[in-house]
Amino acid sequence: MRKKTDIRKKPSASTKINKVSFLGRANATISQHFQQFVNSFFELWKTPFATLMTILVLGVALSLPTIFHVTYKNVERISGQWDSASEISLFLKKDIPQERVQVLINKLGLYKEIETVTYISSHQALQEFKELSGFSKALDHLDKNPLPSVLVVVPTKSAMNTVGTKFLVAKLEREQDIDLVRVDLDWIEKLQAIFYLIVDVVVGIATLLLLSVLLIVSNTIRLNILNQRDEIEVMKLVGATNSFIQLPYIYIGAWYGFLGGVIAWLFSLILIFWLESGVDNLTGLYQTKFEIISLSFNGALVLFATSALLGVIASLISVKQYLVKIEPS
């Protein structure tokens, strides 16, 4: 019997060489980038004073948008607390029979926008007023209780906002046995309108500050390129390409941006630590507790990445504009 012949082709020596060559080039490229990345960091500190001043300026420019962001997050939390505290007080008409009060409570319980309904009789309201006002003796001389009965309505979570509460108030005002609907939303709306205006202003200022970061890093890289003009000419004479020469400057720009982001993060932490005691004193006067939140871990990562990206973009602007113009004479 004939033996079956294996006709599968074995990988040729050239294929193996190509694979080894590709892996070698990839490892060499990664090693080169890593070496340039590390060397660019130490290159910064050859002029420590100038580098430190540049990083501090970048830190100040980046800290203001960071602080604005932290302030926005804290004010947003306060706004959320306002919405969740939007109880509605329903002052009932005088001398309304108890049976009609119960019918009204049952009717309000069917509203999909209402979570709970609490009844406070006129007698209970008067007793609470005596305790809180300190005029109990003077109020004892009244011939008739002037306070009406009250229903305290707590909206559902879906209605705990300005629009939902307004819609619910409009429905409650159509009930015949309700004399007055009271909810303190006007001042919240005005405060929110002011807040949104401030946010627009802050976004504009933050945009200008981020633009200033681009200009600062771009100008710093430009000065570095001009100071090392002779070295760049020599490198081009021995055959170095523009992409090879520009790599350290791009990493230097990334380092400038990243270190500026770190300084901005530290400035925001210092400011929050400084404001904590004042906020505690203020909230203590109103018998409430509010803790200032700082920049979250994810927020810090976004700050570092964004600032480094700004540094890279600024470096590319300077490199493309000035490096390509340098040619050996």
UniProtKB/TrEMBL annotation:
Domain (FtsX extracellular) ranges: 87-163
Keywords: Cell cycle, Cell division, Cell inner membrane, Cell membrane, Membrane, Transmembrane, Transmembrane helix
Topology versus the membrane: Multi-pass membrane protein
Alphabetized Gene3D superfamilies for the sequence: 3.30.70.3040
Record carries keyword Cell cycle: yes
Signal peptide: none
Pfam families referenced in this protein's UniProt entry, alphabetically: FtsX, FtsX_ECD
Transmembrane feature ranges: 49-72, 193-217, 249-275, 295-319
Record InterPro entries: ABC3_permease_C, FtsX, FtsX_ECD, FtsX_proteobact-type
Family: Belongs to the ABC-4 integral membrane protein family. FtsX subfamily.
Subunit structure of this chain's protein: Forms a membrane-associated complex with FtsE.
Free-text function comment from the UniProt entry: Part of the ABC transporter FtsEX involved in cellular division.
Protein name (record): Cell division protein FtsX
Species per Swiss-Prot/TrEMBL record: Psychromonas aquatilis
